[in-house]
Amino acid sequence: MAIFGLFSKEKKEILDKGLQKTKTGLLSKISRAIVGKSKVDDDVLDNLEEVLITSDVGVETTLKIIERIEKRAARDKYINTAELNTILKEEIASLLEENGSVNGQTPFDFSIKPYVIMVVGVNGVGKTTTIGKLAAQLKNEGKKVLLGAADTFRAAAVDQLTIWAERSGVEIVKQRMGSDTASVAYDAVKSAVANNADVVIIDTAGRLHNKINLMNELTKIRNVIAKVVPNAPHDVLLVLDGSTGQNAFQQAKEFTKATVVTSLAVTKLDGTAKGGVVLGISDQFKIPVKFIGVGEGINDLQIFDKNQFVESLFSDLD
After folding, report:
1. Over the stretch 121-177, which tens digit does the pLDDT of each residue have?
2. What one-character DSSP code corresponds to residue 299?
3. Which long-range CB contacts under 8 A does 9-16 form with residues at least 24 apart?
4. How far apart are alpha carbons 289 and 280 in whole angstroms?
5. Under DSSP, is residue 45 helix (H, G, I), strand (E, B) or coil?
6. Could you give the 3-state DSSP secondary structure of residue 104?
7. Is the CB of residue 96 less than 8 Å from the CB of residue 279?
């Protein structure tokens, strides 16, 4: 299954299965919110507001959605509850469109070679696994991929990335535990240039206990990468654990303070009912979601398609 191909039936089935817990929770809440109602009135909107907030969409994003529905109700004079599903899908998709979500399109500019991706995120969110899955899918697309194991503070991170590199058949640049992270990143990008690699993916340390140290470390990595490839990194991908709900908002807040984040990957959506966090984070931080993780398999890391995501969430409410 090609990661950059059209949204196939197989991809849709994986997405539907991965979002099942979120969908079941959301739809049951919406059904209760409109029970006994024939039109969208203040009571329905109040109930819907509570539904979205408790589904981890976030307060500010929820209020935006409610305000848009109110405007439509005022304009159209009457909206029945049967139309609510369509309206919700349209307004949520519109919000994601405004935030630049890639909508199933190729997420990287392969005219740039090597295309340098720096991956950030706290420990435990699935950062290294996301890198491994992405590397495997890119390799299957015929791209020459190189990994940089710059999370040298955690031996397990280097070991895990090495396993992924071997499994995927891609090269990896690594140093001993405790090595300077920027040095590993520099060597990885330099090796990518020398070996004519298409893509180089740099793993970074996932520590948040000291924001100043984190900021300095990530800035140093960016600076040494740019010495080898001007204007690199071309993408700074923040990996967030969707199952943590509102905690993912806090992580996004801290990392956007520490470095420039250009895209998001939200993982572990298959094991949680908190998939609404994808909507809130994208809206609040104005950062496009490029990938979502909806399972353990390599192909369960999908390019984010806003239309398919929203359709999957609301597909049983019609």
Report:
1. 988 888 999 999 999 999 999 999 999 999 888 778 899 999 999 998 999 999 888
2. G
3. 10/299, 11/299, 11/302, 11/308, 12/308, 12/312, 14/294, 14/295, 14/299, 14/300, 14/302, 15/294, 15/302, 15/308, 15/309, 15/312, 16/312, 16/315
4. 11
5. helix
6. coil
7. yes
Alpha-carbon distance 97 to 76, whole Å?
23
Token pair for 200: 């180089």
Helix (H, G, I), strand (E, B) or coil at 4: coil
Distance CA 24, CA 20 (A): 6
User: Cα–Cα distances in Å, from 57 out to 171, 179, 268, 283?
Assistant: 39, 40, 16, 9
Q: What backbone phi and psi angles, to 5 degrees, belong to 145?
A: -115, 140
What phi and psi values does residue 59 have, to the nearest 5 degrees?
-65, -50
pTM for the full predicted model: 0.89
Residue 224, SS3?
Answer: helix
pLDDT in tens, 230-242: 999 999 999 999 8
The C-alpha atoms of residue 120 and residue 149 are separated, in whole angstroms, by 12
Residues 6+ apart with CB under 8 A from 146: 114, 170, 171, 172, 173, 188, 191, 192, 195, 197, 199, 200, 201
